[in-house]
Every structure is written in C-alpha cells, then in structure tokens.
C-alpha cells in the first residue's frame, strides 16, 4: 500500500482503514442473511434438529420473549466469581497480545531492517498464530477442556518474553521468542468460550461476557504505554510487566492444584528462575 500514496487524493495509510472497513462491511451484510438469534429461529434446521440443538446447549439458548428475571440475571453476572476470574485470565492474554499488535513492527525495526522488510517479517508470526488458534480450539473442543490449553498458551508467551529480553544477540533466537509470544496469545478465545459455556441465561451470559471484554480491554490501554522508547531494543520493562501477570496467575493456579505436587514444584521453580532472570537483566540495563 506504500505505492498508493496520493491515489484518490488520500495518503497511503488511509487505504489500510478503507480496505479493513470494506471487509467488515461485507461480513456484516453476509451476517444479516446467515446469522440467527436462536436455534429455534434457524430456518435451515428441521423442527427435530432445532429441538436436539436446544436440548444439547441448554434452556439458556431458548428465546426469552419477556423481561422477567432480566435484572436478577444481570446482577448475578456482576456477583459471579467466575466472571471476574475469567476476566483476569483474558486480561492477562489480551495485554501482551495488544502490545505486540501495537509495537511488533517497532520491535522488529531495531534489528536493522527496512520498513518494508519489517512489515513482511510480521506475516509469518500471525500465520503461525492463526494456525495455533485453530489447533487449540479444535483440540480444546475435542477434549472438552479449556484451562489446560489456556495455561499452555500463557506458558508459551512467558517463555517467549524470557527469550526476547535475554542478552542473546542472534536475530533468529529473538524472532523465535516473538513467535512463541504470539502463538501463546492465541489461547484468548479459550477464555471467552470457557466463560460463555458456564453462564446460564441470556442476560447473564451477555452481561458476563461484556464485563469480561471490558476488563480485557484495559489490558490494551496498559499495553500502549509500557513499551517505552527508552527501553529499546529489548523492552525489558514491558516484558517484565507481562511476566509478572503470568507469574501471579500461575501462583493462583498452583494454590488450587494441591492434587499435583510435581506440578507445584515445577511451576514454583519456573517462577523463581523467571524472577531471578528478569532481575539480572534489569541490573545489566542499569549498569549500561
């Protein structure tokens, strides 16, 4: 799109939003004809198929034609610990995801590549991230489990940040760290599905998911300010923030996992290694 500068009297960057917007508009128009509110209103299903689907996903999927119980369901969403717990989980995933989407070209540019090459280098990262997203979703549904896949993704992100902030000079090693970061961030959809699957009632589900997205979007605001220019090229400060979030969630999880002593030991060891490593890296930056 760099060659489209001046086309239609617009600067090149404007065409990015135009093309993105065209895709959104087309998808919205298609959705009008193919999306349905509830299984009971899906015309492409037979009556028997509708009954089967409604029975499988529960009565919460059936349409509610009155407002009875709406206030109670909304209040139940605000007071349900699951909503807030999974909001924090999504926050821990969306924060590094947002940061990388904002600053990935800037991070890669510090390796000495031109703007065009830097943009090209982001493509494999997102392609691999998409592949992992589909794989995690498929196997999560197949196993009917969410948490193992979510925390596996967070573990990949944590390892990726550790590799990136290390003092290892080769570009390939740090690029691999960024690959792990983006691949791990693909587990965010699991946190969304986990909450949606555990909220009964249309109003409670809508309110709970709205709260989850609100909390996770705070991560985007934080991510926009913690990768500071003075921390280039390793951005240890921002990476430490995300490592601390992951460290806190693993600590909370291990407190609930007393049934697996070996897991507790391994996670505790990883946490100590991560904390020591980040402290050493900060010491090196202070010395410089």
So how many helices? 11
Low-pLDDT parts are 59-63, 257-271
- Given the helix and strand composition, which structural class is it? mainly alpha
Query: What spatial form do the alpha-carbon principal axes imply?
Result: globular
**Straight-line N-to-C gap:** 40 Å
Give Rg in angstroms.
22 Å
Helix content: over 70%
Order of helices and strands: HHHHHHHHHHH
Overall pLDDT:
75
| Total DSSP E strands | 0
Largest sheet: none
Give the DSSP E fraction (strand runs of 2 or more residues): under 5%
Keywords:
globular
Write up this protein.
- This protein has about 290 residues and is an all-alpha fold.
- Helices cover about 75% and strands about 0% of the residues.
- The chain contains eleven helices and no strands.
- The chain has helices at about 10-35, 45-55, 70-80, 80-110, 115-145, 145-165, 170-185, 190-195, 200-225, 235-255, 260-285.
- The longest helix has 29 residues, at about 80-110.
Please provide a brief summary of the model.
The chain is built from 11 helices and no strands.
Per-chain topology:
Layout: H1 12-34, H2 47-57, H3 70-79, H4 81-109, H5 115-143, H6 147-165, H7 171-184, H8 188-197, H9 202-226, H10 236-255, H11 261-287
